[in-house]
Amino acid sequence: MRTPHDLVGAGTPFATLQAPPVVIETRGLRKTYVGKVAVPVLLGIDLRIRAGEFVAIMGQSGSGKSTLLNILGALDVPTSGTVLINGVDIGTLDDDALAALRNEGMGFIFQFHHLLDEYTCLENALLPLMIRYGSVAEAARARVVRLLERVGLGHRLGHHPDELSAGENQRCAIVRALANEPRIVLADEPTGNLDRRSGQEVFALMREMSREIGVAFVMVTHDDRLAQAADRILLIEDGRLRELPQGSRRVREQGMP
Amino acid sequence: MNERERRMPESLWLSLLPRRLRFESQLAARHLRSGGRQTLLTISAVAAGVIIVVFVTALIFGLQRRWTGILTDVLPHVTIRVVDPKPTPLAAVPGAPAGAVSSRIEQRAPQEKNIENWAQVVEVVRALANVRMVVPVVRGQAFASKGGNPYGVSVIGADPDMQDQVTPVTKNLIAGHYRGLGSEEIVIDYELARDLNVSTGDRIRLTSSTGAVEAFTIAGIYSQGQGRGSAYITLRTAQSLYSLGTAVNAILVKVVDIFRADDVAARIQTLLPYEARSWIQEFPQFLSTLRMQTASAYLVSAFSLIASAFAIASILIVSVLQKSRQIGILKSMGARRRQILRAFVIEGLGIALMGSLAGAAIGLSIVYLLSLIEQPVTRVGRAPEQLFPVAILPFYIALAMLAATAATVLAALLPARRAARLNPVDVIR
């Protein structure tokens, strides 16, 4: 599902009439870390991400990729600027509403799988539903089991994370992120902790899921080969966001790790 | 893992809980199960607190009960007597000239020493609240002899069945009988029998303080274990021995609640022109010692609970620190503050329940085993006594469990609040 690109920064967005709805939008997002010295990280980020898009965010270490992702996921608050998720300014939401947004509106995938050791693979994938409802309806469970089968974990449902490989756990984490049928998945270097082969497997799965389910994926990555397979590549440089044209080789020229 | 699933039908008990507690309870249960040694350690800390409380209260209240029992079982709780006339200083006599001195030795005025209308007194006292029984008696001093040297002895004349309930005699008999005592029969204590070198069936002579002499057949010999006991005869015989006619010189009262004996005594004094003294007035230090002991028991209990609460709090704080990343993950998945708070409080509650149950069970077992230890027999013809006269008081055990549970939940609340406040960004990486 290729969507027309929204231009970022100074550009004017041009969208076709059939364009899917914008699920993430930021306006003038700034973030300064205040410690002994103030460290400005984001210096005004404007972006729009539409439903079903697969967006890769690249940038050097410390460029603020993860900070941006955390702000988009309502885990961190910007110093100034607004974040609209599904058209709602999340700055106006209270703690409970933010928790509900994270639970129902989005899923997270981290560099490490961060599954709970105390729970089996299936139970881990069902956790967002447990948090939301206190129990899991049969239909929802069947859907999550189908997703687990889809990512090749059908025979691992009763296994605990310590009994699975890193790749298997990361695939379970992907299903967990999708358990509540969110419109957005935020992934922070989801393949960073995997060897090349399982990293590619996991990425391929995320890509397929996004196509099949129509979920917007925002993925922070260092791996420009993976980024090339995204719908769009956004580069953070000096606190500002720049969209790289599709198929651009500039990523490598920029000296990415 | 499948084994782990089979151990407890989790879905079953979860379905019994309200929906809004299920995720939290499941998480708490998983933490407890995966906690392993750490969970055991926390449960042990709670159990230790409860064990100490169960143990200390059982011992102290057991000792108190035994001690109070020893004293009050053999004592009248309230003794009614004729008021002893008190001498009035001359200066206080109305109309006496200032500085007057009396040099004349007055003839002793005849005084009322006896209770003539005792039947009425018994009637009145028996109607009072908390009174269990009222026993009219004649008490006096006498010399007992059998040919040789006379020995001084206190004599109590009373109905045997009633007297047995004021100061047990039948229970302590080592030979003969007391119930159904005849008018010429007497029950004496083991020490006196040894001094007089007599046994049941022998005859001895009593010379009362009024000079009357009567011969008795020894119907029984008892041993109360300490000191010299009184000699027991029937009321009627004692009345004639002390020339009292139909009067008595004391009325003994047994009450239900021994710690309220004072109230009964005060009530009697307001109703009747006699002196009524409770056992508490006779032994004022006794009650204050009991109070000190009770206070010490509470203090030891409170401190041991506080100590275990601190132990629990520190273990739980460490456990929350260890789980901080997990808490961050759960919050990133949309777990709310109060869900995290509840999960940790439920975890504390689980620990508290298991710990206090284990503590009560272990504490009771220890107390029970202690109660089996016997002292070497020191008294003739008596069953061996417990070394630790423990009291198993369900009220205090329940209180200990409740207090331990409250302390644990409070101790859990501190780290739970901290967990609930964690910012996911700070802990996930």
Secondary structure elements and their pairing?
The complex is a heterodimer of chains A (257) and B (429).
Chain A: E1 22-34, E2 38-50, E3 54-59, H1 65-72, E4 80-85, E5 88-89, H2 95-105, E6 106-109, H3 121-133, H4 138-150, H5 166-178, E7 184-188, H6 196-213, E8 216-220, H7 224-228, E9 232-237, E10 240-244, H8 250-253
Parallel strand pairs in A: 3-8, 3-9, 6-7, 7-8
Antiparallel strand pairs in A: 1-2, 1-4, 4-5, 9-10
Helix pairs in contact in A: 3-4, 3-5, 5-6
Chain B: H1 2-7, H2 10-16, H3 19-35, H4 37-73, E1 78-81, H5 118-126, E2 131-145, E3 151-157, H6 160-166, E4 173-176, E5 185-189, H7 190-196, E6 203-208, E7 213-222, E8 231-233, H8 235-241, E9 250-255, H9 261-271, E10 275-278, H10 279-282, H11 284-322, H12 324-332, H13 337-372, H14 394-421, H15 424-427
Parallel strand pairs in B: 3-8, 5-7
Antiparallel strand pairs in B: 1-9, 1-10, 2-3, 2-6, 2-9, 4-7, 6-7
Features:
heterodimer; A: 257 residues; alpha/beta; Rossmann fold; six-stranded mixed sheet; four-stranded antiparallel sheet; disordered N terminus; disordered C terminus; B: 429 residues; alpha+beta; 2 domains; ten-stranded mixed sheet; 10 strands; 53% helix; elongated
